[in-house]
Amino acid sequence: MSETPRILAFAGSARKDSFNKKLVAIAAAGAREAGAHVTLIDLAVFPLPLMDQDLEEQIGVPENARKLKDLFAAHHGLLISAPEYNSSITPLLKNTIDWVSRPEPPDVTMLHYISGKTAALISASPGPMGGKRGLAIVRSLLINISVTVLPQSLSIARAAQEFTETGDLIDENKHALAKAVGAALAEKLITLLG
Questions:
Q1: Domain ranges within the chain, ordered by starting residue
Q2: Which alpha helices (DSSP H) does 42-171 contain, by range?
Q3: Which single residue of 83, 115, 131, 147 could bond 123 by disulfide (Cβ 3.0 to 4.6 Å)?
């Protein structure tokens, strides 16, 4: 019997009522239904200083960076809902990836906490493009650190009008598409772990 795929799911936003937190929860449900074990985390629970090599040399790896590295290492895949700030990646998401991807002795050449993972990307934005410009940057960043990024993605535009009070997408087709991205990641990992 093959190993159950483990997916770490999170949004690149700390805001309590983040559209991306709502969206990643929907996609995570799709991944669970497809047979994956999903750990849904809130990056607000893991505050980090700005990545700074001098600080790293002075204090070592911050406690929350260590917790995140361990979480990333324990999962096969990443399900990321990435908000867009100024047509780019959010500072929170970039800083998280920067800390997690830092190599550590004795293995200073491998990014073993994140490289080799498989990821799926989604986004929600109040704007008309749904965060697509930011997703392109997240995709490029992850590929450059040896993460395989699935072609399946979803961007929800005008997100302020798209969610119910309970966090579901009003449009059943969009809701199904969000779950399908999570399912696609789970199915890809099942194949890889087969």
A1: 6-193
A2: 53-59, 63-73, 91-100, 132-144
A3: 131
